Sequence to fold (149 residues):
Amino acid sequence: MDYKYTSKSVDDTLELAQNIESEKFPGMVICLNGDLGSGKTVFVKGFARALGIEDNITSPTFTIVKEYTTGEADLYHMDVYRIDESQEFGVEDYFNKDGVCIIEWAELIEDRLPEERLDINIKIVDENTRILVFKPHGIKYEELCSAVL
Ligand SMILES: Nc1ncnc2c1ncn2[C@@H]1O[C@H](COP(=O)(O)OP(=O)(O)O)[C@@H](O)[C@H]1O
Ligand SMILES: [Mg+2]
Fold:
């Protein structure tokens, strides 16, 4: 089952991410898709803040992944927009860790994603409105969505 959430502001998106964080579990994988400016990084900010991470979160476009280890759980924030297939970047290594992975532009590495994960597709409606469509893959993610949404 898919779930839909309409965000009417940046604060709505931050709060939604915080609510999902409250249901986190080790090895959680969240895949974010949506055009530039749809709010993928805003979502990561809300999640990171809820984990107690105080760093300023920005898209790790040139590094692929940023690791934050000062929160309640480790956070691996990836942006694979510029991933190069020839690059020996082991995304898979991160999926096997106990921390939480959040991947911007995850659809670009679809064939490398774990089967069990939460896909969130974000659509821009107007200046301040975004529609977020949640597609849980696997029982843990189904339960998470029904608890939060
Ligand atoms: N409801 C909303 N949720 C998230 N961001 C919003 C919303 N409305 C407007 N915005 C704006 O959209 C932009 C989203 O930027 P960002 O999170 O960096 O996008 P992305 O990482 O998807 O490229 C920000 O400038 C933010 O202020
Ligand atoms: Mg971004």
Notes: The longest strand covers residues 117-126. Residues 7, 9-10, 12-13, 34, 36-42, 59, 104, 128, 130 surround adenosine-5'-diphosphate (ligand 1) (CB under 6 Å).
